[in-house]
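This part of the workshop introduces the protein records we will be handling. A record pairs a protein's sequence with a compact description of its fold. As an example, a complete record with its sequence and its structure tokens follows.

_____
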Amino acid sequence: MTTIRKTPTVLVALCLVVLNLMLPITAMAAGPSILVSRATTSTKVIALTFDFGSDAGNVNRILQILADRGVKSTFFSTGSAAANYPAALASVVAQGHEIGNHSYSHPYFTQLTPAQMSDELSRAATAIRNATGQAPKPYFRPPYGAFNSSVLTAVGDAGYTHTIMWTIDTVDWQGVTSTSIRDKVLANATPGSIVLMHVGGGATGTPDALPGMIDGLRADGYRLVTISELLGSTPTSQ
């Protein structure tokens, strides 16, 4: 009889424990990823960022130029690039640059289900971690710059608190000249800007554009920073 009387009490207690464990999880559910195309600041800071999407054609030259001029940047790598060029991506991290997630296979996220987006992010994170020993969270850059509210929700749920876009698109992947790339950045730089460039072989003008770009920005009073440093200011989607 004693056992029969105690059983309901034990069950109630167990239920309460389970509920208490679940409540914090619900309360801490992730919100949508914050869309950032620049930082709101009056300080002359600017972030040079590079997408590592398909090939490592210009990685070594870009890294050497950044090292020579003491610049740290943020690189957004796909998982396929990490898997195919692990040594190149490891060099990026070894030289003190930041790394972000650029998906695994570079699809339009606006055409994927939440489960497919999660899979792309997870597979990319694994490949990046295998190559560098470093996780790419909390920064994500959407392939083709394609996003909507569903993308931001799925990305936020996956733990990527910030979706990083850009202020100045150099369109370097089109093979434009180094002079065009450099002049576009210098003419459009404003405090808090994010510059988009690529490391692939198709961006033939990027390595030669960098020295003049960096020197010109510094001559104009700019400090070149990583995305983490830039987000010391308030992020905005403007």
